[in-house]
Amino acid sequence: MIAALRERSAGELIVPEGAVYPALHRLEAAGLLGSFWAERAGRRRRLYELTARGGSVLADLQGERRRFSTGVQAAVGVGVSADPVEGYLDRLLGHLRGSAHDVRRILSEAEEHLRDATAELVAAGASEEQAQRRAVERFGSPRTVARRFSACLAPVPPAAVAGELARVAVVLGGVGLVAELLGRLFGAGFVAGALPGVTYTPARCAEFLEYFPDAGGCAQAAALHHWGEVVEYRAAVGVVGAFVLGGFLLWRRRADRQDPRYLGVLPDGFAATVATSLYGAIAAALAVLSLDAFLVGGGDGTGQWLSGAIVAVAMAAVYGVSLYRTVLTRARPGAATFPLDPARSSN
Fold first, then answer.
1. Given 105, 120, 155, which residue is the final one in a domain?
2. How far apart are CA 238 and CA 179, in angstroms?
3. pLDDT tens for residues 249-271?
């Protein structure tokens, strides 16, 4: 990476090796870079790549650099107008959606095409400004170009969808395990008992007692019968989800696969904000249902709502911590002051 910086800057940027690694570590701690080990040329090396947050910050910095450069040219240049190509690339960036890698590639290809077209028009006798404006007009509006590229952007891979579904299954299994614990503490009726207003016909009671002849009554037999639906099925789904999720994570780690990093699709912290809000609202709703079942039904069936409320509170706390860290990272002075080349770097 040090050699690449020196080469690309024509020898103007000579960065000491002792300054690179602390910068990489600070960027990784700020969530702007991710790293992993991989074999390269027979040696095990630590590779770095931009995270989704890092790609977004890089895009912001590149936009600021373009705007600053354009402003300086307009302020100090005699008869020099703002660079139309730079302004076009800024507008194009605002319309592009996809992975950070794809967005950077599209911007690079667009700029290369526009610069080549400008050079041809200048050679044909047009002024620099006229050549740039004609090149931009021929290339098309930023919105149209972004739509043309949208079909080529990396889609969400099926493996990532499967991983998210496995996480949902694990959460559902967590609800089942909490319900199991509540049932052990307070009895099957507390978790799977009939809700207020539910009654059973003599035939239905006889059916329950046939399955559980030692229950001692229709209500207890019904609670034991419903136990599988409320507790065991959820726990079983959670176990399956845990195995699938573990297999997915192991496969991704061994294959050195990385999640696609999407730039411009959602702002930083959006997913954590939505998840915290939704889980918090769900926890509140389930807590109200639990209280209603406890007060009206004397406790029967309370656990099926309370178990979900407990897990929802835990998930809201997890996503809340993630949101808090995102806010701290974005608010920390100097957290995004180390622009890197978008390509992967290795030490």
1. 155
2. 13
3. 777 666 555 444 444 445 567 77
